[in-house]
Amino acid sequence: MSTRTVPPEIVEANVDAIVGPTHHFGGLGIGNLASQEHRGSRSSPKRAALEGLRKAAWVASCGVPQFVFLPPHRPRWQFLARLGFQGKPAEQLAAALENSPEILSTVFSSSFMWAANCGTFSPATDCSDGKHHFTPANLISSWHRACEAEERSHSMRQLLPADSRFTIHDPLPAIMPLRDEGAANHMRLSDCSGRIGFNIFVFGVGATTGSTRFMPRQTHDASTAISRLHGLDPGNTFFLQQHPQAIDAGVFHNDVIATSHEGLLIHHETAFLEGEAELVRLERRFEELTGVPLRRVVVSGEALSLADAVDSYFFNSQILTVPSADGHQRLVLLCPQQCADNQSASKLVSQLIADPTCPIDDVKFISLQQSMANGGGPACLRIRLPVERGECDRWALRLDAALEELLAGVIERLYPDSLEMRDLLDIDCLQHLERIPGEMAAAALRANFVRP
Ligand code: SUG
After folding, report:
1. From the CA of 12, how far away is ligand 1's center (Å)?
2. Which of 149, 345, 353, 452 could crosslink 314 through cysteines, CB 3.0-4.6 Å?
3. How many domains does the chain have?
4. In a domain, 173, yes or no
5. Mean pLDDT score of the chain, rounded to an integer?
């Protein structure tokens, strides 16, 4: 039980990306078993977008500040032109498909929907210059994601007020030794006020050899560069290497094998390679600065095998501090439906709720079938921005009932029920899909959810 009466001074604003109308199964996620398994299957952009929107709306209904990023324009015509595809739109797309399905998938990608990969955010309270810092992830491990960084810098600027309190860096240089996948490989712990922060960066490639089956997506050099750029206190910053066995089992990001919230860290016993010394340093430092012990839950392979962790996405559950009517705060675990369906995960969730030493009070299961089929659970769909209470009142695109209705209306009316890669070559279908992000943005602007 965690119920307490003093609300944290720093609150976690959540930002979810609205799924785009060209959501499809391209099979491009490196080391991502679900994405590879569903390659070429028919998708439902409408269902994907409504599932994601309902998840974000549920979080908002709990009283957690919730914002959205709107989908960017597709297809990426400039990308096609840069690869030398010329001619009329239909000809360019057909030539791209003939050349490689990866190119067609890239120009229509909706993978920006996994906002946890949009970048790494550090709140002002953790940074030496007293400003918030955000570094968009360069995502250069894969074709379809490497173009997202520019779009996401734009989305952040659209959301946040033009304010000297935010420093938005350039993405790290686009070279393989600096590959970065953002908040999916970063965890922040804090004291109960939220002011004393502890930052954990998790990388797949360091001095020692990494995975053999799949290319690890985050490098140690990228993680250390971000911690320097953000001016994080080295004494409160920790670096852990992902266990190669985990990467080989389909754990392509740390948020598929570990999670954290305030003073709670939950990780699988095979999450990190020789991580114990760094974790002990973290525990000592946490207790020294906060006066209370870190609550670390280590999930054994016996309780949840790596295969079940990947199948259920238990670690990709969101942990939310939810204010309740009596003025208390409760910790709620928002799990993908797969955790209820997977026997080991379901038992683990029940045990955590029943455990009096675990601060999680409650669980909610949510269906995100379309995102999960591409390897994205509840936590992948959002980025957390810990800021001062009330600070986000001035941000754009806050998800309230009116914005939810507006977005659901556009999705219901315009998003396709079903989509296959070949449909993207149909000129009528293409013209329809191409108009949707603009219409959604214009509707949000008319209703004053976005600054002009
Ligand atoms: O990068 N899937 C994404 C899933 C990202 C999940 N995010 C976090 N774990 N935070 C990825 O692998 C699949 C796209 C496709 O195959 O069409 C994809 O990109």
Report:
1. 23
2. 345
3. 1
4. yes
5. 95
Across the range 190-197, mean pLDDT stands at 96
Q: Categorize the per-residue pLDDT at 207 as very low, low, confident or very high, splitting at 50, 70 and 90.
A: low
In a domain, 95, yes or no: no
Q: What average pLDDT does range 120-149 have in this prediction?
A: 96
Residue 3 pLDDT > 60: no
Q: Probe ligand 1: pick from 22, 25, 32, max atoms within 8 Å of CB?
A: 32
Instruction: State yes or no: is 253 an active-site residue.
Output: yes
290 lines ligand 1 (CB under 6 A): no
Cα of 108 from ligand 1 centre, angstroms: 14
Domain holding 239, by residue range, is 10-74+109-446
Q: Of all residues in the chain, what percent carry a pLDDT higher than 90?
A: 90
Question: Which tokens hold the place of 59?
Answer: 């979080």
Residue 153 belongs to domain with CATH number: 3.75.10.20
Which amino acid is located at 68 in the chain? V
Residue 23 annotated among the catalytic residues of the structure = no
Can you tell me the distance from the alpha carbon of 426 to that of 429, in angstroms, rounded to the nearest whole number? 5
Instruction: Indicate which residue's Cα is closest to atom 10 of ligand 1.
Output: 380
Test site for ligand 1: of 374, 381, 383, 420, most ligand atoms within 8 A of the Cβ: 374
Helix, strand, coil shares of the chain, percent, nearest 5, are: 40, 20, 40
| Spatial distance between the Cα atoms of 13 and 59, rounded to a whole number of angstroms | 10
Assign 162 a pLDDT band (cuts: 50, 70, 90): confident
User: Closest Cα to atom 7, ligand 1: which residue?
Assistant: 380
- The catalytic residue among 23, 253, 267, 268 is 253
Please say if 380 is a catalytic residue: yes
Q: Classify residue 160: in a domain, yes or no.
A: yes
The answer to whether residue 46 sits within a structural domain is yes
Query: Which helix (H) or strand (E) segment is 438 a member of?
Result: helix 427-446
